[in-house]
Structure formats: structure tokens, C-alpha cells
Amino acid sequence: MYEVIDFAFLNQCVTNKPFNAMRIAIPIMFLISVVMVGSSCASWKQNRWLSTHKKELDRLANSNLSPEQKLDGLVQDYIKFMNEDLKFIDPRKGVKYVKKYHDQNQKSMQKILDSSANWQESLNTVDKVALGVRTIKKPYVKDLIDLAPKFKRKYKQYAIALKLLGKIGGGLTHFVGKELF
């Protein structure tokens, strides 16, 4: 009986019929390559997001816009960033994304926040109230109020994410304190 099996195997090799293992190996190699390309695409997408944020924040920080317009742009970019970040299922990957965002944009964000803080401090009481009313009416405030608790809840154990959220929220609400956050 063993001789027949050996002969069948040799006959298959001699007649150049594909071995059954190749029929299995080709789909497995295809699946592995799809997974590798998929993970590479995700990384490429994240790098593209980070590049877009950097360009926008650098543009805002170095522009001749008013401090209020710069702060509006910063908060809108930050809302976009939080939406992207909340798409991460694994919090560790999300924290890496937060850290990269913070590291590459810290200088621009700080420049915008300092400019805004100096401007807000120079306002008189009536102007501060008017700014508060204008800020509450801005379309992005609702998004920020909705996203901030989700972001805090997801990253409560990661101090860097909460520190960054506090800076952005504090810059926005400097004139009324940090009650929103």
C-alpha cells in the first residue's frame, strides 16, 4: 500500500502537475500581502493627516490673521484631529497619533495660543463679553463640546492627550475660565 502512495506522488511530480501545497500557499501569500498593503495604507493615511495638520497650523501661526481667527483655525483643526483620532480602536495607537500630532505641532499651537492669550488679556470687560457671545455662536463649539468628553474618556489614563485637550480648550475659553472642560 505504501508503494502505491509513493508511486502516485512520484507520478504527480513527473507529470508536472502542481502540488496541492502550492494551491494552498498561493492564497495564503495573497492574504499576507493584502494585510501588509492594508497596514501600510493606514500608516500612509495617518502620515498624510499629520502632514495636513502641520501645514495648516504652520500657515495659521505665521499668518497675518487676527488672534481670534487664528484660534478659530486652531480649534477647527483640533476638532478634525480628534475625529481622526477617535477612529482608532486600539487606544495605544491613538496615543501614538496624539503624541505625533503634539510633537510636530507644539511650536505652532503654542504661538497661536500665546497670541490669543495676549490679545484676550488686552480686551476690556465689554469686549470680553462680546467675544464670549461670538464664541458660543461659532459652529465648531458644539462639535468641541461633543468630542471633548469622548476624547477624555478614551484617553483618561494618558496624560499627554488630556494635557493637549486642556491647552486647546483653555485657549478657547481663556476669557471665561475652563468650565467647558
* N-to-C CA distance: 79 Å
Biggest beta sheet summary: none
Please provide the ordered H/E string of secondary-structure elements: HHHHHHH
Number of helices: 7
- The average pLDDT is 77
List keywords for this structure.
181 residues, mainly alpha, elongated
How would you portray this structure in words?
With 181 residues, the protein is mainly α. The protein has a domain of 122 residues. Helices cover 81% and strands 0% of the residues. It is elongated. The C terminus is likely disordered.
Secondary structure elements and pairings:
Blueprint: H1 2-14, H2 20-61, H3 67-85, H4 91-121, H5 125-136, H6 140-154, H7 159-172
Helix pairs in contact: 2-3, 2-4, 3-4, 3-6, 3-7, 4-7
Task: Summarize, please.
The protein is mainly α. The chain has helices spanning 2-14, 20-61, 67-85, 91-121, 125-136, 140-154, 159-172.
